[in-house]
């Protein structure tokens, strides 16, 4: 269990809480932008890995 700050009221909330217990904001631990950025980063890393792998195999 990790404590983070709510993106709305900035009080302590559990990382994976669905709503903030203080201000009832949805998914207080992660902004939607941050989630999108995480997915983008994941695909960038995946693409880079595939690129490196193909270059390595191809010699
Ligand atoms: Zn809050």
Bound molecules: zinc ion
Estimated helix fraction: 40-55%
Radius of gyration: 18 Å
Give the averaged pLDDT, no decimals: 88
How many strand segments? 2
Give the spatial strand order of the biggest sheet: 1-2
Number of domains: 1
Count of DSSP H/I helices = 1
N-to-C span = 45 Å
What is the succession of H and E elements?
EEH
Residue ranges: pLDDT <50 for 5 or more in a row? none
What is the assembly state of the chains in this entry? single chain
Give the overall silhouette.
rod-shaped
Sheet of most strands: 2 strands, antiparallel
User: How big a fraction of the residues is strand?
Assistant: 5-15%
Based on secondary structure, the structural category is: mainly alpha
Overview of the molecule:
This protein has 59 residues and is mainly alpha-helical. The chain has one domain (3-58). Helix content is 46%, strand content 10%. It is built from one helix and two strands. The chain has a two-stranded antiparallel ribbon. A hairpin with a 6-residue loop joins strand 1 (3-5) and strand 2. The longest helix has 27 residues, at 32-58. The N and C termini lie far apart (45 Å). The mean pLDDT is 88. Zinc ion binds next to loops. Zinc ion (ZN) is lined by residues 6, 8-9, 11, 20, 22-23, 25, 28.
Fold topology:
Elements: E1 3-5, E2 12-14, H1 32-58
Antiparallel strand pairs: 1-2
């Amino acid at each position: 269990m990790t404590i983070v700050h709510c993106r709305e009221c900035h009080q302590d909330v559990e990382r994976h809480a669905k709503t903030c217990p203080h201000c009832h904001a949805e998914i207080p631990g992660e902004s939607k932008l941050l989630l999108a950025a995480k997915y983008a980063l994941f695909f960038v890393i995946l693409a880079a890995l595939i690129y490196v792998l193909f270059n390595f195999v191809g010699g």
